[in-house]
Amino acid sequence: MTAPDSSGTVAVRQDEAFARELDRADPLAHLRSKFEIPRACDVGASNVGSSELCVYLTGNSLGCMPKAAREAVISELDDWARLGVEGHIHARNPWLPYHEVFRHSGARLVGGRAGEVVMMNQLTVNLHLLMVSFYQPTAQRYKIMIEDQAFPSDSYAVSTQARFHAKAAGFDPAAAVVRLKPREGEWTLRTDDILQAIEQHGGSTALVMLGGVNYLTSQWFDMAAITSAAKKKGCTVGWDLAHAAGNVPLELHDWDVDFAAWCSYKYLNSGPGAVAGAFVHQQHGDRTDLPRFAGWWGNDPSDRFVMRPDFVPRPGADGWQLSNPPILAMAPLRASLELFDSVGMNVLREKSLKLTRYMEQLIDAIPGNAAGQRIEIITPRDPARRGCALSLIVKHDPRSAAEWLKKAGVVCDFREPNVIRAAPVPMYSSFRDVWRFVSVLASQHVSG
Ligand SMILES: Cc1ncc(COP(=O)(O)O)c(C=O)c1O
Asked: Which of 14, 265, 283, 410 has the most crowded CB, counting CB atoms within 10 A?
């Protein structure tokens, strides 16, 4: 066997035994046992044994449950039962400063400094709260640049922010959102085209806010280059990291990103509707001149209970909090980030590159698919420009292909009209999972 090298290149064989060999050689294989992988029969598979686990490739939607999450939640429930209100001070993880548990682990995840990251709210809420501070349009500089294939919630957020300001600032909200489109016949954006758009619109753009890894294509934008170019033009730069946090290594502080937000239910495996994250660069953390919507949890904790009416923000990202932390929702996040900390993003990324490259090579090797005639990969071919997921256009009867996968116990994601997204996640996906996914997909056209 030839093991994958660090760029993810591997001389593949197409048989299952080879996948199993790769799993045996995988230094992170033990992490899988720390997760609950659903049984195939519970998630829509037919004709499979009752104990067979599914092939779970939808961590880009909802990550699998870390086993430690259950214990973390139960421990908070026990403390609540035992201590009642005293749990705010005397719980094993006291509830009053609970969000501080993530001060370092949250920052490490996105390349922030301590104090630049806070876990709070939901992703779209955080985008809005951060735009309150960082989208300050004028009649001359009012545009918001996003990718045309932005997740709908981001489109709604930026267009309603523009409308909110338009009258007072004196601009036409219909002209405010600049959507970056791929070239005709292409699925992903070329970095040069993005830089060109920044050059063209930069002078009238207040905010550039793309998804670090695009939700549909898994394209990982050149965040450093885009941030730098936009800032040179005087724009503020924010990133939606829903598909990037826990997926790719990030250096938000060093890249000079102004703000970012992400959810924790995808690659961060923290459960449905999990508490989201927010990053505010150190250079803005203490600014009292920025408009912000305030709540008592963003207030200086030393006089929080003095109950004065005037708001004194605590320094850093913490000052953007509104409400007291939802402990039961944050407990799984604690369990999950401990796992991330025990491995580190760079080590996870090494395995991720190999898993995704393996999937790509198996798809390319499907008989009759050398030029993507049956299944076209629309995710960038350059490993440096993509996250773990591959997005595939199934040329023949894509809905049946999605059904076929489900029946065979492969859980991945179907986006209308014809895109299947499959995310091998280095924390818990195996090379055999990847092999099984591709063999089921390939067999559909033969048997289905
Ligand atoms: C890129 C992106 N942005 C925003 C959202 C919305 O997240 P939330 O429901 O946590 O606000 C999602 C959800 O999947 C997403 O993928």
From this structure: 410
